[in-house]
Amino acid sequence: MSAPRPMPTSTLHCHEVAGLQRLAWLAIAEPDRRGGRAGGAGGAGGGGRRVDVYHGTAVERRDDWIVEGTWDGEFRSGDFHQSNHFFGTGIRVEAGAVHFVPSSALVNRLIYCEYRDHLVVSNSLALMLGFTGAALDPAHDYRAETYAIRQGPAAYQRAFRVLHPEIVTFYQLYDESLVVAGSEIRFESRRTAPALASFEQYRALVEDALLKLRANYTSAERRVPMRAFATISSGYDSTAAAVLIKDLGIELCFTSRRSNSHIPPWLSPRTGLDDGKPVADLLGLRTKYLERRRSRITDNELYFLAPGCAPTSTVLHSLAHHLEQRDGAAVVYTGFQGDEVWDTNHWERVYQDSGVLRGDTAALMLSEIRLKCGMVNIAVPSLFARSIRDLAIIATSAEMARWRVPGDYDRPIPRRILESAGVPGNLYGGRKKAVVERPTYPMQRELRRQFFAYLQATQQCSALFVYLHGVLNSVAWPFVRSWHLMRKKLFKIEPPNTPWAYLWPRVDFPRALFIWAASVLAARLATQLEAAGVKLPGSIRRNSPTLPPPATVAGASLAQGWRR
User: Fold this and answer.
1) Do the Cβ atoms of 272 and 263 come closer than 8 Å?
2) Nearest 10 degrees: Cα torsion 375, 174, 192, 105
3) Which of 63, 121, 172, 334 has the smallest CB count inside 10 Å?
4) pTM of this structure
């Protein structure tokens, strides 16, 4: 009688590449090796997959997992694939299956594709482009991919259009893990949504989760030490987050004196103020102002432009520079996803009442620079965000009436957190502000010169026209916006979505800027991979199965393309 056949074993083979972004990784999973002899290439049992992982210098690695991030569990266990709160990305091998895991907060994504019968996965779009040689399509509007997660994790578009003779499409993945088990691929999530009955229960759970996260990223078993930083403003979200994390050993808080208000300072001096230092001082947190001078912007601006077509947060350039000057990695506590979780206004309540958690494109636009400078984004409002219906009920309950305010900026949960810490109401809230920008060309001089040369070569468009386009549209914006607001006030007509440009809207500079930046960064990373000896997968097998076309990718349907 023959002995039972052992379960196929997948194996990780990690290769550090100094030239990659500090926290970046790219994994190449070869086809399932079923049917091999025991002790052969597939290891014991002769099955499973070999997964080669090329990664930056600050990625943590063990025999059966790699990770760039932190989670609410013991570090040594490497159980981030089943953690409720995981910030970062990673790969975990468990019971023969390989789990490719994105963040539990909808602020980061994974990119994957099938290439020459291999599955290729990365936490960097630019790295995927550089490795495969795929190109972005100049005729395609990538706002569809960039804003896809705003539809929620159950409805977003996974297909990410690229041009390549052998690759049908890339795919982007949020929330769920991509699991490779034997000859099958599936999507799954082991994260749960506890029932929340009161504000007190919610706050206690959040504080407990924050302590567990801190224990994880300060673990002595980490190869790369992690420091803790935060952002703070005069709005609700990051200030409430600062109250919750003030005793966790924060090294420094970054803040901006001003927001990107369209109202000129001489008309309303207070409108553009976004200074979080008064609140930080009251909480005993040390602050540093973000450097906003364009003359200080470096080549790192490229990383702010490369993730997609949404507005960028280049104002965080000096934060990234500060982290990059230090060895290792860092966690940065932020207020991202506060709009989705804590707001009570009608446009958010539609999603909250239906239990839909939407993603944050402002955070997504940090997905390349964070890898370069070693930053893990802990979006505090995302903790227990899966219980969004319960949070909406709590926020509008009778017990929270004391912390409700009239108007369009009503967030009773963070307001109660702030008042309980003794923060005066005149130091926060008031109106919604932001520091994102909608650039049509780079601020850094050399990058700007290269981009204008690219426009001239591809669209026969001069630098003068780019400048003129920006000036005329910036002048038109206040008049058009005022007209829409007047119609809303007089006739209750809701303003339409603000277009990126009112004049010459067909000349799409933001799209061109993204395509150019991602392509330049991909070319740089391709050079680093080539220098490290990273090779493309082998030749295409005849009759090789392919992933389904973009329209059919949903849940387990992807697995059909990988069954043999």
Assistant:
1) yes
2) 30
3) 63
4) 0.88
